[in-house]
Structure formats: C-alpha cells, structure tokens
Design goal:
Layout: H1 17-31, H2 40-53, H3 59-66, H4 71-83, H5 95-111, E1 119-123, H6 130-145, E2 151-157, H7 160-168, E3 170-172, H8 181-187, E4 188-190, E5 198-201, H9 203-206, E6 209-213, E7 227-232, H10 241-253, E8 255-263, E9 276-280, E10 283-286
Parallel strand pairs: 1-2, 1-7, 2-6, 7-8
Antiparallel strand pairs: 3-5, 4-5, 8-10, 9-10
Helix pairs in contact: 1-4, 2-4, 5-6
The chain binds S-adenosylmethionine.
S-adenosylmethionine is lined by residues 31-33, 84-88, 92, 125, 127, 131, 157-159, 162, 215-217, 233-235, 238, 264.
Length: 287
C-alpha cells in the first residue's frame, strides 16, 4: 500500500536486471500492473519493507526466497500489496459526483432500472474506501429526498492492506476537507479524543458498504449480481491496452443495461469495442 515512492540509497537493495525481469513478469501476470524498466528504483523501494520484515540482508536474498519452489504462492500477495499505488481522496474528480446527483440518479430512479431492489454500486479499485464512502454519502443524501431509494456499495481491490482500512473506516481528519460541509456534519464521527485528529464514518453508512478482495484481471471473478453504477477510476492506467480492454469488457458484463460506468479523468476507452455510450466526459452508459 503506497501513496508515494522513495528512492532507496542502500546498495544492498539493488535488484539485478534478471531479478527485476522476473519480478515484473510475476507482477504483470498476477495483477495486470505493467512495470517498465524506469520503475526499477520504485520497485526496490517498495519491496524494502518485505526484505526487512523477513530478516533478509539484501534484495537478492529475498528474490532467492521468492523464486524458490512454492515461494510465489506464499509471498506473491505480499508483493502485490507492496507494489500497488493506492493514492486516493474523498470526492476525487468531483464532477463525477455532480453527474451522479444531477443526472445518473434522477435517470435511474425515473426509469426504475432497479425495480424496487436496492440500487447497487461498485467501486472496483477502491483503495482505502474514500471513493466508496463518497459514493455512499451522495446516495444517502439522495435517498433522503427519494424516500424509496435503498442502496449498497461494493468496494473491491486487489490489495489486502487497503481493504482492512476501508472496513475500519477511520481516516485522518486532514483527508476529509474535500467532503462537503453538510456531509461532514452528517456522516463523520469525531474521535472522543480530540487530539487524535481522526474521524470515523457513521455506522449507518458503514453498514451499506462492504469490502472484498477482487482481482480485475482474474478471469474467474463473478459479482453476486449486476450493478447500476460502477466506478473504475485510476486503475486502468496501470494496465496495457489489451488488459484494459479485457478488464472493461468484464466490468461491462457486470453493469445492467442503462447503468453507468465512470473511469478516471486521465483514462480513455477510445478504440475499444464495448457496449457503452459516452454521456459525459469519462462517464458512459451501458447499452
Ligand atoms: C490509484 S488507486 C485508485 C483508487 C480510487 N479508485 C481513486 O480513483 O481514488 C488504484 C487502486 O487499484 C488497485 N488495483 C491495481 N491493480 C488491480 C487489480 N488487478 N484488481 C483490482 N484492483 C487493482 C490498487 O490496489 C489501488 O488501490
């Protein structure tokens, strides 16, 4: 779990070209994340914690341990946890939440696309849950206007470390400034210990949001049911074009006709053949 990477000045933490190739191949196959040669210093920095935790002196020793028989099965998930970039924010790319409130939710509730069932939403690369709880806040606000609206948010990610943070739903207060003031008052609880500078999402929202591990490149994953809204933001950038297409095709299968897909503002789906119609910048309707 990483927000930033720091170069490692320790020469014992250098990766040989061969170990780097083996690692980047494993990471690509296991997660779809492309690691180009320019990322070598980043990989060295991010694996340092694992090397120390296991008591090895060098990255070479760690690689011997890793690439022994059964090593990847044992340690592979830890590598993915260490390599993923989990940077996120509440109400990141805020136009998406405006579109949700002013266009998608009125459309969906008017069309009855979910026919009395709870509105199902999915944050498919959720990181620590800021995106999922932003969604939940918008939906909870909307449901206070449309009384019959019930909803759920499924938050999934490949990284185990972040899922625990999301389920706990405790965040540094400094992270909450993008949350609109009235939502902060309604949906955040302050710690009794004022010096802690932490807040927790209220139980009424926590009970609507569930966290689970899901690897978007795993061909075997199945969602329990189709979704009306899917957020797939700031994860496609880590995949090559072919993987992006495969991942998006699978996500489309998980969205009901008339539902919506949101991708990150620096991500594009141009050139892919997908059952989607663009309805706003980086927002698509499932056809
Ligand atoms: C930069 S964060 C984006 C978080 C959030 N969607 C946002 O836009 O703020 C990217 C997330 O994608 C996750 N990720 C990377 N590869 C994945 C995969 N193959 N399956 C599921 N999640 C993946 C990472 O663990 C990380 O938490």
């Amino acid at each position: 779990m990483n927000a930033i990477s720091t170069p490692d000045p320790n020469p014992n933490m250098d990766l040989s070209a061969r170990d780097f190739d083996s690692l980047s191949r494993f990471i690509g196959e296991a997660s779809g994340i492309r690691i180009s040669a320019t990322k070598k210093t980043m990989v060295e920095g991010r694996l340092r914690g694992r090397v120390r935790a296991l008591g090895f002196a060098t990255l070479r020793d760690y690689c011997i341990y890793l690439f022994r028989e059964g090593g990847l099965a044992e340690e592979g998930d830890r590598i993915i946890d260490a390599i993923t970039t989990n940077k996120t924010d509440f109400f990141r790319e805020v136009e998406h939440f405006h579109f949700l409130t002013h266009t998608a939710l009125p459309e969906l509730t008017r069309n009855g696309a979910f026919q009395g069932e709870p509105l199902r939403t999915w944050s498919c690369a959720a990181s620590i849950g800021a995106e999922a709880y932003s969604l939940a806040m918008v939906l909870a606000d909307y449901s206070s206007e449309v009384r019959s609206l019930r909803f759920s948010v499924l938050a999934t990610d490949i990284c185990n470390d972040v899922l625990g943070v999301g389920a706990e739903a405790i965040y540094p207060e400094a992270m909450t400034s993008p949350i609109p003031q009235h939502m902060r008052a309604r949906y955040l609880m302050r710690s009794r210990d004022r010096s802690a500078s932490e807040v927790r999402i209220v139980p009424e929202l926590r009970e609507r949001v569930s966290f689970a591990r899901l690897n978007l490149v795993d061909p075997g994953y199945r969602l329990p049911t189709q979704m009306q809204i899917a957020f797939c933001r700031n994860v496609l950038i880590y995949f090559d074009k072919a993987t992006q297409h495969t991942v998006l095709s699978r996500i489309c299968e998980s969205i009901v006709a008339g539902g919506y897909l949101f991708v990150g503002h620096s991500e594009t789906i141009t050139g892919f053949s997908l059952p989607l119609r663009q309805v706003a910048p980086t927002v698509f309707a499932r056809v």
